[in-house]
Amino acid sequence: MTALQESQLQNLTYGDRDSVGLFQQRPSAGWGTVQQILDPVYAANAFFGGPEPPSPPGLVEIKGWETMPYTVAAQAVQVSAFPDAYARQENTARLIADEANIDLNRPGDPYAGASGRPSGGGSPPPGTQVGDQCGGGLVDGKPIAGKWPAEEQSVPDPTGTGGLLTPRTAAWVQAARTALQNPSMSCWDAHTWNPTSDHPKGKACDVFVGGDARKSPAQRAKGDGYANWTISTAGKTGVRYVIWYGKIWSARTGQWRAYNGGGVYNPTDATGGHYDHVHVSMY
Q1: Residue 141, SS3?
Q2: Within 10 A of 89 (CB to CB), how many other CB atoms are there?
Q3: How many CA atoms lie within 13 A of 79 on its CB side?
Q4: Of 87, 203, 74, 111, nearest to 150 (Cα)?
């Protein structure tokens, strides 16, 4: 997540002032020589910390890092001029981990290899128990295997936005309307404030529950039903992920985890936290 924000995972030989490498670490700040920092293994070890990396504190040397929001923990190491920017990369980082079949919730000692454990440490990283906290009527699914070839936007959006959807997304709309008794939904949108969204790519739809489900058990149950049907049919329809009620489900893991807004949305309000609609993204 940090390297995505700092360099887009490019091992840069340049940067702000004397910053270089994946994490844009600065020789003048004590991170090492340019040659050392340009070694991805050295740079990663320096970021995480421990007995061998250089003097700036690495992640495991930051007191209480395990309970910090990820962007705060990253900032504690990086001391960036844009401390909130790391959050926008979390979902991408998780998707990369999913593609690589890396279980981010696997058990293990987060201080393995470190010279000492700061006082107050030892708690699991934030989000570890999310799968046990879904509550309500949400269910996990099984990881979805298989490859879904890329598609071009070629089908007029049947929800009436005037945009174009991929054939896979249009087929999902038809199936959802039949199975879910024609719910209110909208798919294509320019999303100028978030150009990385799947909506302008014709690969996403929002299914509305009629209001803030935190205030209505009936709306919560309706949204749970929409999400559960989407998950149960994902292997046939090509659903990539679902966001609903402050959580995001990935087809790669088959599990729900907390949704933080991706650095774009306010996860505490009804729309930003997806409490008033179920977001469905397709491969």
Answers
A1: coil
A2: 23
A3: 9
A4: 203
What is the amino acid identity at position 120?
G
Query: Is the pTM higher than 0.90?
Result: no
Q: Confidence band (pLDDT; 50, 70, 90) for 182?
A: very high
Indicate the pLDDT class of residue 114, thresholds 50, 70 and 90. Answer: low
78/29 Cα distance (integer angstroms): 11
Contact yes or no for 63/121 (Cβ under 8 A):
yes
pLDDT digits (tens, 9 = 90+) for 27-59: 988 898 999 999 999 999 999 987 776 778 889
Q: Cite the DSSP H helix spans in the chain.
A: 2-7, 34-37, 40-48, 70-78, 90-99, 167-179, 217-232, 234-237
Domains of the chain are 2-99 (no CATH), 130-282 (3.30.1380)
